[in-house]
Design a protein that fits this description.
This protein is mainly β. Strands 2, 4, 5, 6, 9, 10 and 11 form a seven-stranded mixed β-sheet that branches. Strands 1-3-8-7 form a four-stranded antiparallel β-sheet, with no helix packed on it. The mean pLDDT is about 95.
Length: about 120
Amino acid sequence: VQLQESGPGLVKPSQTLSLTCTVSGGSITTNYWSWIRQPPGKGLEWMGAITYSGSTYYKPSLKSRTSISRDTSKNQFTLQLSSVTPEDTAVYYCAGGVVFTTRHNEHDYWGQGTQVTVSS
């Protein structure tokens, strides 16, 4: 299973960050699919996930700003993070696995990551 993130590398403060993860070699209608980020100099942070049935789960501290959705016809899932600030600057990863987990080291599949910088 391969995952590939895509989206703009630069977002202005107060705007909405939008990233897409394209999955190949497997279907998003099976397994669990997450977004995880790593700010500079910090550890990995699980942001949220979408399940094989389309149910979503979010980190409580990010829930008010985060939305994860999917397009099964394209085998893609997306992340939207609203009202971004420079503190949202990070490498963003999409990941997946056969069990639901919020622990980054328990995900089986990873994208290569994409740098997103929030700056005016």
